[in-house]
Amino acid sequence: MLGAGVFVALGPAVGRTGVFVVWAVLLAALVAGLNALASARLATRYPAAGGTYVFARERLGPAWGHLAGWVFVVGKTASCAAMALAVGAHLAPGHATTLAVVAVAVLTAVDLTGARRSADALTVSAVLVVLVVGASSLLVLGGTPREDGVGHAIDLQAVPQAAALLFFAFAGYARLATLGEEVRDPARTIPRAVAVSFAVVTALYVVAAAAVAHALPPDVADASDRAVADAVDTLGHPALTTAVAVTAVVAAGGALLSLLGGVSRTTLAMSRDRHLPRALARESSRGVPAAAQVAVAVVVVAALPFVDAAEAVAASSGCVLVYYALTNAAALTLDGTVLRVLAAAGLLGCLLLVLSLPVAGVLWTLAVVVAGLAAGRLTLRRAAA
């Protein structure tokens, strides 16, 4: 979760809600938490790689499993674009798109070699984000408030919309639910891991969101692709701003490297199941899904000149919220009254946030879902024939 989200999603969220952004963070955390509970419960029942792609297929049927895989691939491809733009914006704000393309090309080449980041490297990256963003945000909160005060009028419709955008920053906990095959005692380990990660991440996001709202006027935050760094810059300590920018590059770049590989492997699995063209199932001599890897990179690079970070975040959030709506729908079929109530709340929360997205985001999500359902129906017909 501690990747590009905290660095790119806070600006648009503060732009819509001002100092009330904390409520948007908490709403996003609530919906994400409900989704995590459903994911964790399903992961203990189906300890196999694949996440909601498996859950929806087993509990709702093959067509819904296809849709889950479809929205995951599309949504996470949009996430790759947002992460690449985050890397570019923090390296050189005036050349974000160009550097984003370079980042995708370089990290795809790294993935094609079969190289993998270790758990230790992931831990170092997460600790760096917590320490640098947490400490710098507290310093900002201790500084002088922005000159226009705190009189930003609350728009009740803006809080859910900001929460929908901030949901992007919570995406990542699903990775835990896909590790059922690799974890000892998943019934105990996965729920505990979800709870601990949520507590740490939510606390950090609340502090960082409050700091951005404290330092930047809503219009300035909304126009920024590096809102946390810009908020820290108001302290007048260039070294600290540089530290935040470097942390953003490390976190977003690491997340991009991981996600490029993750999306390509889901693409590989769907190709093997004939939910996507079989040509994408080709692997290199190193066992790397090279065709899928290159295809994902090409799509991301092709999209970069036409989207900004906020648009990529909205596109990703819409698809990922549909993905978790399917997670909760699958959890509704399990036994247990309390679980079903929580799953119903999670399902309604996902739908609320999707419909709260900007109009372009809602239309994009609807188009992706319709295309996914149509493709799934066609695939099932071919399999039956």
TrEMBL record:
Protein's name in the database: Amino acid permease/ SLC12A domain-containing protein
Pfam family, one: AA_permease
Chain ranges of the Amino acid permease/ SLC12A domain: 2-331
PANTHER family for this protein: AMINO ACID TRANSPORTER-RELATED, MEMBRANE PROTEIN
InterPro entries: AA-permease/SLC12A_dom, APC_superfamily
Coiled coil: none
Topology of the protein relative to the lipid bilayer: Multi-pass membrane protein
GO cellular-component term (any): membrane
GO terms of biological process kind: transmembrane transport
Domain of life (superkingdom): Bacteria
Subcellular location: Membrane
Transmembrane parts of this sequence: 20-38, 67-89, 95-114, 121-142, 162-181, 193-216, 243-268, 288-307, 313-331, 338-355
Keywords: Membrane, Transmembrane, Transmembrane helix
